[in-house]
């Protein structure tokens, strides 16, 4: 007997399609904007003007206005987002493509004409090929700017607006991955260019949960200030907000429910209960206080309803009964996710516009509504989104949480009014390190001036974690094996030298690597690198594990997993730094071991750098800021490694001999 086919489809329910009228103070062109801003200044001579590029619906703009700035110009290339922004904010909201050189120059001229003080924005940052990175790095180091063309990356368009408009303050926002690749290339380039333009620059990965937003959402924030001002980050919130704190007051609705009245319809609302809910209802008065707009979501398929019934917040899709699955569990093992009402929401992304399966309501058998998604992003309930529901979800997912932007704006407003100081730039610090390294004759890690990558591999395999004096004594003998062929030919002598320092047990592994390189015709170890999964350090924590007993030179780059015939990623990264490729287009990976993180913590006076959760984010960003992105970055990085190994050690550092003492928070106060 055949099994009847079940039809799990649901009737498509469209809309409502929200149309929003422009703000009462909307300006249609630059002439109107100049006149309107002049009137603003007459009413309030101290008004601080801001602009928001890649603005989306206006999450950043809303937060900045709540902090006291007046956003008078915005640009985005999403028509519905521009409509949303134009409804909520005065001034110009334009649909311009900032990949277009003419648009870039027009934006900059407009910002100059009205005297914008703060430029904010989150330009998309696309990855680069090695050749592309090499070309851009060369132009940055020589102080050249790229010629305008349609293919330029949008973060460079953003920096061009900064160069031409010269605002006092700049905020750049993006996903952490933009900065945390092996080279941290885009981040270092942005810092370098901003410093060349006269800005002091700070960068940090902020976790929105720590700032009163009920969502796990990490964002890289770069803040740049002109004229010697230095940015101080907002303090974390005293209390966190969970999902139910944020949306527990919203009325129950069925999936696919639509209010009478279309876009003007509403759900009945009883009132807020928690402090966060009251914040989201602030400013809603009179009859509107009993109304809730945009509390709609997708219809629920019959089979999805069954699946939702079997789920709590810990259930994976692959754990559902087979009868409740309609996707392959080997690919979509985490396809559905019910939110945990007592915890934070997972990151709201633009993908929610396509499906909401990662955002199933914590108690009801449906995905979350537009209003619930907006609440989890900290948009107040009076904020509406233009277009169909899919466009509203997309705008919410792409937005900067207004509550985070507000706190950044408040810090900026305070610090722009503070007395000016003169911080050291990444370029100055990097050049100081590079010069110190070039002049230093007796290195704690002599192989930092090796001639071949194989010499680095040999030294890191046989000398890592040795006392400095032992490593210095053995290095001249080891350096004679400059190639894999030489190591194989002199295997017995190599074993004898390694025995002097008790490392003869590592020689077999080294010889296996050499044999593999020779047999495969490799002259560089790059192709033999172990994967991050095989190498616990992964170029991120090159010091000893927490709780391990440290050897005298434990902080040198060398703590790595032992693999059969491969080069650990940490060793490869160091080799790429020590011996650049002959073509000049090799990688410059950012190495951030415990010794370097300790040095960065002392330099910046920021304990957060050494926090276990922040080492791969704020820790690496701090190291990148110390080495900079100028022509001396490679030598500066090697100098930083040597400094952490020789002077800035555990216990009492030799601050009196440190080349960075005057700029270092701890070193400048040392006796």
TrEMBL record:
Signal sequence bounds: none
Enzyme class: transferase
Known catalytic reactions: a 2'-deoxycytidine in DNA + S-adenosyl-L-methionine = a 5-methyl-2'-deoxycytidine in DNA + S-adenosyl-L-homocysteine + H(+)
Domain of life of the native organism: Bacteria
Comp. bias regions, Low complexity: 528-542
Keywords from the named record: Methyltransferase, Restriction system, S-adenosyl-L-methionine, Transferase
Name the UniProt record assigns to this protein: Cytosine-specific methyltransferase
Record PANTHER family: CYTOSINE-SPECIFIC METHYLTRANSFERASE, DNA (CYTOSINE-5)-METHYLTRANSFERASE 1
Gene3D superfamilies reported for this sequence: DNA Methylase, subunit A, domain 2 (3.90.120.10), Helix-hairpin-Helix base-excision DNA repair enzymes (C-terminal) (1.10.1670.10), Vaccinia Virus protein VP39 (3.40.50.150)
Active site: 125
Family under the similarity heading: Belongs to the class I-like SAM-binding methyltransferase superfamily. C5-methyltransferase family.
InterPro entries, per database record: C5-Methyltransferase (IPR050390), C5_DNA_meth_AS (IPR018117), C5_MeTfrase (IPR001525), C5_meth_CS (IPR031303), DNA_glycosylase (IPR011257), HhH_base_excis_C (IPR023170), SAM-dependent_MTases_sf (IPR029063)
Region annotated Disordered, chain positions: 518-565
Entry keyword annotation includes S-adenosyl-L-methionine: yes
EC number(s) stated in the UniProt entry for this protein: 2.1.1.37
Source organism: Geodermatophilus obscurus (strain ATCC 25078 / DSM 43160 / JCM 3152 / CCUG 61914 / KCC A-0152 / KCTC 9177 / NBRC 13315 / NRRL B-3577 / G-20)
Lineage of producing organism: Bacteria, Bacillati, Actinomycetota, Actinomycetes, Geodermatophilales
Keyword Nuclease included in the entry's annotation: no
Record Pfam families: DNA_methylase
GO biological process: DNA repair; DNA restriction-modification system; methylation; negative regulation of gene expression via chromosomal CpG island methylation
